[in-house]
Amino acid sequence: EEEIPEDHPRYQDLLTRHRIETGVEKGITHLQGMHAEGRGSAFDYLLGEETIPSADAAERAAAAHLLLADHPVLSINGNVAALVPGEMVDLADATDADLEINLFNRTDERIAAIADHLREHGATEVKGLEADARIPNLDHQRAKVDADGIYEADVVLVPLEDGDRAEALEAMGKTELVIDLNPLSRSPQVAEVPIVDNIIRAVPNMAAHAQELADAGEGELEGIIEAFDREEALEEAEERIRSGL
Ligand code: PTJ
């Protein structure tokens, strides 16, 4: 990462790409994660590579959801682990949430590599290794979750999530917070809070909102959640992308 000059106009994009490549080399990120990153990068370019106001509002509402939750869980896949490991640990600390590894292409090797990587970045407890429960109506491998983690969570943050899983979690009645640069993908479409922003910017901003709201009462947090309009946020993101074309 030291080789990329910070004043390069595409600094953030180059940094992101580099982190994904390193993730693949370390056995953390799946090869498909490189394609996912390429798609995300194209949308981010059209968004102007910045957190648009509706995304900031979504990040604040998501922080409020996590703070109000009985049992919040942050889901980690191979791209998330490569891009924002320490930032996810900080967000978990700020909201008293669990971290759970949940992979689309699940192998024991990648689970172990990601768990080590998260611990190196300060995680004390990592879930997803037991996989002793199943999300209903999803094929075997993708359905695996921890009974005391995502399975019983009331609020889950699922960044860069596959559409089938997002729908299956929604069907379980969970409050889903989704980070995805493509506002038309199924995951943000089914999310209670769709966050159309690069995960690299979204997660630190959610943690900052959570820290700022640490002493807020339930009424204030509920007010923030009610004031957030998911349809408007999706439309604003799509509008911004169209104008970027
Ligand atoms: O590690 P695994 O096995 O769980 O696999 C993870 C990937 C991401 C490979 C898998 O879930 C997958 O194939 O996902 P999709 O269907 O490609 O969806 C990824 C979504 O994330 C796409 O809509 C991308 O636009 C979006 N995306 C990619 N990079 C970013 C992003 N959104 C926010 N920030 C990014 N940096």
TrEMBL record:
EC number: 6.3.2.36
Alphabetized GO MF terms: acid-amino acid ligase activity; ATP binding
UniProt xrefs under Pfam families: PPS_PS
Pathway(s) of this molecule: Cofactor biosynthesis; coenzyme A biosynthesis
Domain of life: Archaea
GO BP term, example: coenzyme A biosynthetic process
Catalysed reactions, as listed in the record: (R)-4-phosphopantoate + beta-alanine + ATP = (R)-4'-phosphopantothenate + AMP + diphosphate + H(+)
The keyword ATP-binding is annotated on this UniProt entry: yes
Keywords: ATP-binding, Coenzyme A biosynthesis, Ligase, Nucleotide-binding
Binding locations of ATP: 17, 39, 180-182, 186-187, 198-199
Enzyme class: ligase
Primary role: Catalyzes the condensation of (R)-4-phosphopantoate and beta-alanine to 4'-phosphopantothenate in the CoA biosynthesis pathway.
Binding partners and assembly: Homodimer.
HAMAP family membership: PPS (MF_02224)
Family, as annotated: Belongs to the archaeal phosphopantothenate synthetase family.
Protein name stated in the entry: 4-phosphopantoate--beta-alanine ligase
Organism in which the protein naturally occurs: Natronolimnobius baerhuensis
